[in-house]
Design a protein that fits this description.
Length: 191
């Protein structure tokens, strides 16, 4: 269930927390809200997938050890969904071994945090994710402007080509008139 950010002037990130430990999930969601983000919570993998499809979060914190569908599988499925490809995935686990790091990378996680998440590390990660989102939005806006400029440039080039064609036609007519004047002069000289 989505919960709005307490600061109406800050958009914050839309964050999905998926953890089978309800207390851990709710506590993390509360902390994220205090940091100015909008959160929703799911308590198992399938519910997390449905929530992600419905809400299109900017970021999802996934507990990797859950019964049934673990966080690695949720991450793989999210990465397989074209509409969710841009969601930043954060593996949240008490595991901190090289095998976990490799499995997390193979599943498509962007970042890993060890439980319990250090608030300063969490805030740093979220600040970075907000900057990434802002850059992506700016890039998208610039791309739209570039398309508009390209259309305007094509239109201007079409006008220039049309004007150039008219100028060439006028030059051709002037040359023809000059040729006729020269012929008349030559005829008068000869005559």
């Amino acid at each position: 269930m989505p919960v709005e950010s307490p600061d109406p002037h800050r958009s914050g990130l839309r964050i999905l927390v998926v953890d089978d430990n309800r207390d851990a999930a709710d506590s993390l969601a509360a902390l994220l809200q205090m940091l100015g983000h909008r959160t929703s919570v799911a308590y198992d993998g399938p519910s997390g997938l449905r929530a992600a499809a419905d809400e299109h979060p900017d970021c999802a914190f996934l507990d990797v050890i859950m019964p049934g569908m673990n966080g690695y599988e949720v991450a793989r499925r999210l990465r397989a969904e074209p509409g969710l490809a841009g969601v930043k995935l954060v593996a949240l686990s008490a595991l901190n071994d090289p095998g976990h790091a490799q499995r997390a990378a193979e599943a498509g996680f962007d970042h890993r945090l060890t439980k319990p998440a250090d608030p300063a590390e969490l805030e740093g990660l979220l600040t970075m994710l907000e900057k990434i989102r802002e850059l992506a939005e700016s890039t998208e806006q610039l791309a739209r402007q570039n398309v508009q400029l390209a259309d305007e440039t094509r239109s201007l080039l079409k006008d220039v080509k049309s004007d150039l064609k008219e100028v060439k036609e006028e030059i051709r007519e002037i040359r023809e008139e000059v040729r006729e004047i020269r012929e008349e002069k030559d005829d008068k000289k000869d005559g």
